[in-house]
Amino acid sequence: MGPLARSNVLEIKPYVPGKPIEEVQRQLGIKGEIIKLASNENPLGPSPRALAALRQACGRVNLYPDDGAYYLTAALAKSFGVDEDQIILGNGSVELIEFVAKAFLGETDTAVMSDQAFIMYRIVSMIANARRVEVPLRDYTHDLEAMADAIDGSVKVVYIANPNNPTGTMVSGEEVERFLDRVPESVVVVFDEAYIEYIERPDFPDSLRYVREGRNLVFLRTFSKAHGLAGLRVGYGIGPQELIEPLRKVRLPFNINMLGQEAALAALDDDEHIRRSREINAAGHRYLSRELDALGLFHTDSVGNFVFVDTGIDCKVVFQGLQRKGIIVRPLAGYGFPTAFRATVGTERMNKRFIKALAEVLAEHREASRPPAP
Ligand SMILES: Cc1ncc(COP(=O)(O)O)c(C=O)c1O
Predict the structure, then answer these.
(1) Domain count, the chain
(2) Are the C-beta atoms of residues 229 and 264 closer than 8 Å to each other?
(3) Which of 95, 110, 192, 282 could form an SS bridge with 91, CB 3.0 to 4.6 Å?
(4) Which of 100, 164, 222, 257 to mutate to test the pocket of ligand 1 (most atoms within 8 A of CB)?
């Protein structure tokens, strides 16, 4: 008997998440501190306001959550100046990426994405058994012109991570507007803006304005990064009501757990935590950029809370070497970058430990690959 699962499912290469600290401790028997820079989490920890709200809410977890997440939805609507029916909440923004595929992609439809963008766009399209056009990045960035060229009558969805994960590069408002002018009304454009709170560039596109202009566009955000709530899984999407309604239909009940709702609500206006997170991130980028240059390593101009580093050698060697020294980064072979890795920008102390370990690993590799003296 052959396999029972559908062939499109059999073909999926599962998502490989960043390694949890406990797993590295268990596998390598490391006793000292392990620093995880593999999943772009907030090194400052959760929003303190969220923590206070969580303590209050813990005793009520015997009850199901509010399925409509009334208070969180209302707070987001107020914060963005949109109607509540323009908002969809997800179990992390990753669930919203899936809702888009579930609601809009069938077997005869095509999804357009970059070939080296957040890998979930590929996976959800494969689950939907939709066709895919994967457009090569240009200079580590989405090639919006080529993506617009790829749109034919079968295309229903275009996924764009801005900034892109794993390269950290962004497309500007001007580029996006030129792109949107070429997108027909039959196409839903998804802007995945998981790292927006970290953006300091004034030319970053204003997705909310595009929604207000009535474009067929949904933008996705998350509480996982700057708000520091990755473990609670809360993301949201905002778009025109006609696009949000089908997304709500494919949502299963209670997808946002009670603690997630309470924490996200409290974190939403924790401006101080966001401000400190941005500040630490900007300082970290300056430090890492300088140190990576000093090590002679290529890195992109990342605007997120992570760096993309090409070491020029097998990224497994660097990943494993760093891991032995208690630093977890994300190797990017699965993204088609066999010599690159991605590392979250940490606190000053974490960044220093990371750079020291990286310099040691590279030196050890150089030593090991030196031909024996004649
Ligand atoms: C571009 C991008 N989108 C979405 C996500 C998913 O985030 P979450 O599901 O935690 O909201 C990530 C996480 O790393 C990401 O990098």
Answers:
(1) 2
(2) yes
(3) 95
(4) 222
Q: Is residue 54 part of a domain?
A: yes
CA angle 126, 130, 131 (to 5 degrees): 100
Residues 254-274, mean pLDDT to the nearest whole number: 98
Q: What is the mean pLDDT of residues 282-310?
A: 98
Contact 228, 330 (CB under 8 A): no
Average pLDDT over residues 91-110: 98
Residue 195 phi, psi (nearest 5)? -110, 15
Of 252, 269, 286, the one marking the end of a domain is 269
* 226 lies in the same domain as 298: no
Q: Are strands 87-90 and 235-238 parallel, antiparallel or unpaired?
A: antiparallel
Residues 197 and 215 reside in one and the same domain = yes
Whether 93 is in the pocket of ligand 1, judged by its Cβ within 6 Å, is yes
Our answer on whether the CB atom of 304 is closer than 6 Å to any ligand 1 atom is: no
Atom of ligand 1 nearest to the CA of 230: 10
216, 178: one domain: yes
Calculate Rg over the CA atoms of the chain: 21
CATH number of the domain enclosing 303: 3.90.1150.10
**Does residue 241 share a domain with residue 185?**
yes
**Predicted confidence (pLDDT) at residue 81 exceeds the cutoff of 90:** yes
Q: Is the Cβ atom of 230 under 6 angstroms away from ligand 1?
A: yes
Q: Which of 99, 225, 330 has most ligand 1 atoms within 8 Å of CB, for mutation?
A: 225
